Amino acid sequence: MSEMPRTTAESFRPHVAAASPLVRVRGLRVCYGDHEVLGGIDLDVYRGETMVILGPSGCGKSTLLRHLEGLAWPVAGSITIAGVEIAKASRRELARVRRLMGVSFQSAAMFNSMTVGENVALPLREHTDLADSTIRLMTRMKLQQVGLSGVEDLYPAQLSGGMRKRASLARALALDPEILLFDEPSAGLDPIIAAGIDQLILRLKEAFRMTMIVVTHEMQSAFLIADRMCMLDQGSILAVGSVAEIRAHPHPRVRQFVRRIPDGFDEGSTGYITGFEG
Ligand SMILES: Nc1ncnc2c1ncn2[C@@H]1O[C@H](COP(=O)(O)OP(=O)(O)OP(=O)(O)O)[C@@H](O)[C@H]1O
Ligand SMILES: [Mg+2]
Fold first, then answer.
1. Ligand 1 atom closest to 60 (CA)
2. Of 137, 165, 235, 260, whose CB is crowded by the most CB atoms within 10 A?
């Protein structure tokens, strides 16, 4: 992906003024049994912006994405995407909203019994009436877009983890989505490929004004690609703001996360303290 132009989030200005959010989450509460994972969160994501979701492992980031995708139903609260409230939508409306979204899962979930090409072509086969030859061409283009060529006839098991991740992104992009949900795009990738994914994300938002919700633990990547960021912790959103606002945020948990300070470490001194609860 070395041919990708180097760009930064600074060169992009989302059109957020006065517009209603493309994705609107209100009072979203999710429980698994007695375990409350999301405790009534509110979040707005505007057309054309990249919202990065930060937060410790197990805080509910993937859960939030699954609910945005309409794969699971909350205990309470609402999710409205492109003006359609998911829980109240007809099947037809829901299908229309899903068609707007591309999703790349944390696990890069691919069907192992299908070739990479068939995996990427799947949304095109499900949602369009395009001819086989067109689908094959589009599949090749999507794979090229993520820096993968000549792998259509391989099976997912024959790809490296990083290649699988990129193939899963190619599948998410198959229908030219307006909204891309991206769970840990660069986890487990070598730094050069991870940087390539960052550049791809920047290019997608600049070229296509794609709206993206990206979960990542890679702070360098987060600061590069985000227009705004939010931090989830223990079922609540602790902070939402621009990159600069999150960098300078006074909440100790946000500071700790952004500066990669381990639990129990006293920032003001040189060592660990006991009883630190964040
Ligand atoms: N289907 C499920 N059934 C029961 N519990 C679940 C289910 N999915 C997630 N959980 C629990 O919900 C919590 C949040 O999980 P989630 O996968 O959303 O975390 P995450 O923030 O994405 O973490 P990570 O950064 O490790 O990917 C965890 O405690 C997890 O065990
Ligand atoms: Mg997750």
1. 18
2. 165
CA–CA dist 221, 155 (Å, integer): 29
Task: Identify the nearest ligand to the CA of 53 by its number.
Answer: 1
Q: What is the C-alpha separation between 230 and 43, in angstroms, rounded? A: 9
Probe target for ligand 1 pocket from 28, 31, 32, 217, with the most ligand atoms within 8 Å of CB:
32
The average pLDDT across 17-43 equals 91
Tell me if 63 CB under 6 Å of ligand 1: yes
**pLDDT tens digits for 72-96?**
889 999 999 999 999 888 989 988 8
Distance 44 CA to ligand 1 centre (A): 22
**Strands laid side by side in the 101-104 sheet:** 101-104, 179-183, 211-215, 50-54, 228-233, 236-242
Distant-in-sequence, close-in-space partners of 196: CB < 8 Å, separation ≥ 6:
1, 2, 4, 147
d(C-alpha 14, C-alpha 25), whole Å = 19
